[in-house]
Write a structure and sequence with these properties.
Blueprint: H1 5-10, E1 20-23, E2 46-48, E3 53-56, H2 59-63, H3 69-78, E4 82-83, H4 85-88, E5 105-110, H5 118-128, E6 133-137, H6 143-146, H7 148-162, H8 165-173
Parallel strand pairs: 1-5, 5-6
Antiparallel strand pairs: 2-3, 3-4
């Protein structure tokens, strides 16, 4: 925390985050890791390497199941291994829990997602116990590749909503 517009203004610093947009994302809960927050085991498609890195067995099917083949092939080529610690390290306080973001918290829900199934997305959103502006995209895990125009239009609408005069009012009364 510490990067919201309200917190930066209170500290006499310029700028700050005015809204949050999650796209087919894992919601981190304070004190939980990705693994502990999703049943205690890595997904069956994760490959653990002896050097402390992880990769994906079938990335096209997991991440890009609805993406055109030429784009998916390039996206798979661009993937890099991820440190194992990113899945097992407990998270600190999540920004999405900050009341400053009430009314400025958005989630792009992906109904054909093989990486974070829609049921898991729904469970995380419910468990967060905060209000989200949720838009469902009939896509896999990468709507920015399969439906970039629709995602951009939705994202633009969210950002426009974050820029209301109410943001300044909230900062001055916080």
């Amino acid at each position: 925390m510490g990067l919201s517009l309200a917190e930066r203004r209170r500290a006499g610093q310029p700028g700050g985050v005015v809204g949050l947009i999650y796209i087919s994302a894992f919601l981190a809960f304070e004190g939980q890791s990705l693994v502990s927050g999703s049943g205690g085991q890595l997904a069956p498609w994760v490959i653990e390497h002896p050097n402390g890195q992880m990769s994906v067995k079938n990335p096209k099917e997991v991440f890009y199941n609805d993406v055109p083949d030429t784009i998916a092939t390039q996206a798979v080529h661009n993937l890099r291994d991820q440190a194992r610690s990113t899945a097992f390290t407990p998270c600190g306080a999540p920004a999405w829990a900050d009341p400053f973001f009430n009314g400025r918290r958005a989630y792009a829900r992906t109904s054909l997602d093989n990486a974070i199934p829609v049921e898991a997305q729904d469970a995380m959103l419910r468990a967060s116990r905060v209000a989200w502006n949720i838009q469902t995209f009939a896509t896999g895990h990468a709507p920015f590749l399969s439906q970039p125009r629709q995602l951009r239009l939705w994202t633009d609408r969210q950002i426009a909503g974050f820029q209301t005069p109410n943001v300044e009012r909230l900062v001055t009364t916080a």
